[in-house]
Amino acid sequence: MRKVNNVEKRVTFFDVHMPKLTEVQNIAVTIMDYLYLHDVVSLVSFSEKKIKAYTSLLGAIDEVNEKRKHENQDSEIYKHFLICCIEILASGKAKINNLDEMEIVKTIYTAFLEKIVDHKFSKENFLSDMNDLVKYYHPLTLDDKLSYKFASQMLYFEYDNVTISTFKKFLDLKILNSDKYQYIKAEKGNDFFDKVFLRAMLFLEFESTKKQIYIQKIYYKRGFSVSLRRKIEDIEKAFLYVKSIKKSESLIGIKLKSIVNINLNDHKEIQEYLKNLNDRLAYNKLFFYNIPSCIGLMGCWFLIYFKETDLKKPIYQEIFSDFIFGDNGKTTCAKDAKNIILKYGLTLTERTLNSYYDKFYPFYNFIRFLVDELINNRKNVILFNDIVDELLYKSIIDSNFELNLGVVINHLKRK
């Protein structure tokens, strides 16, 4: 508690009195929010079947890179292109209801092949490599759970939480700052974080390409109205959604300078890149409202991961209970999460992590239910049932959905 004008006020994790973010910082946090949503989607859809299929495919992709003698950054870029192409082809194998849908898939595929050529890779070699990988990715075309949001799923599978590595990069570039971060405590070297950051931005470039094609081919056919009986917050959300779509639309046909052509350690170049990328994503953040919430929710992700992979492990144990009952060498999910984020140079107490877990878990379950619904009712993996679009658009047109979403968001922000 603190006093403001002699009135006691409770300080929350999402306290509006936190220092305001600058425009660039707000863009960086929005980018992280987008990545975090996909980290959560990947976690809720975790399965042993996915581990087996993805491990086999990644091994085959590594062999392709070795055959082509791709090294360092080139190997990561080529891997990204192969993975994205698999997502597109898996979509083509899915149920397509009409010629319009087929045309959209073809448009995305054509735009994607142009990017491969732009990056100085041989189109013929790439198509040959995709043909060699058919036996490895064919099972994905038969299983919606394996192919849904495949490019982001593979990022998670390779690097766990992509958001926290991106956050560390922003901290090192001085785009963001936090007193919870100490550079010297990070265990992994800069090469690792540069690699994850590169792949994360390439994934977002892929997402922005799809988004702009959706705008041209799908969004024009949409229409929605917002009743004046809705809360003013709902009306403002609808306005922001339309504004972000129109901003992205205005940039169609204007090439984005790719992250591969930018110095990853140039503060100004990265800032300009993030702005241009964000304008194309047409996304309004859901989770991160200030830096403490970013750190808390990223740590919470690891806590949930440890709980989901070991249901018998306790979530949290009060420190004083160790003195009463003895520790006996046992660990908790909160302790494991604390140790993991420390490897990224970030420090949070177990109590704080547990508090974020209590706040976030209802939202986590909401996402789990939504992903299951999208996969079970999907029309086509790359066309309609996208988690980002579902959260932003459906919350405008469906008052019941907005009510349920509002409940979990309010719980996330509660005191």
Describe the protein's architecture and organization.
Helices cover 67% and strands 1% of the residues. It is mainly α. It has a two-stranded antiparallel sheet. Strand 1 and strand 2 (7-9) form a beta hairpin. Helix 1 packs parallel to helix 13, helix 2 packs across helix 3 (72-93) and helix 17 (387-397) packs across helix 18. It is globular and about 60 Å long.
Summary, kept brief:
With 415 residues, the protein is mainly α. The chain is built from 18 helices and two strands.
List keywords for this structure.
mainly alpha; two-stranded antiparallel ribbon; single chain; 415 residues; 1% strand
- End-to-end distance, in Å? 11 Å
Describe the sheet with the most strands.
Answer: 2 strands, antiparallel
* Overall pLDDT level: 83
What series of H and E elements makes up the topology?
EEHHHHHHHHHHHHHHHHHH
Radius of gyration (CA) equals 22 Å
SSE-based structural type: mainly alpha
Task: Report the uncertain regions.
Answer: 1-17, 320-326
Strand content: under 5%
Share of helical residues: 55-70%
Number of helices: 18
β-strand number: 2
Question: What topology, given as strand order, has the largest sheet?
Answer: 1-2
The dominant shape is globular
List the helices and strands and how they pair.
Layout: E1 2-4, E2 7-9, H1 23-44, H2 48-67, H3 72-93, H4 99-118, H5 123-132, H6 134-141, H7 144-147, H8 150-159, H9 162-172, H10 190-217, H11 232-250, H12 267-281, H13 291-309, H14 319-325, H15 333-342, H16 350-376, H17 387-397, H18 399-413
Antiparallel strand pairs: 1-2
Helix pairs in contact: 1-8, 1-9, 1-12, 1-13, 2-3, 2-6, 3-4, 3-6, 3-10, 4-10, 8-10, 9-10, 11-17, 13-15, 13-16, 15-16, 16-18, 17-18
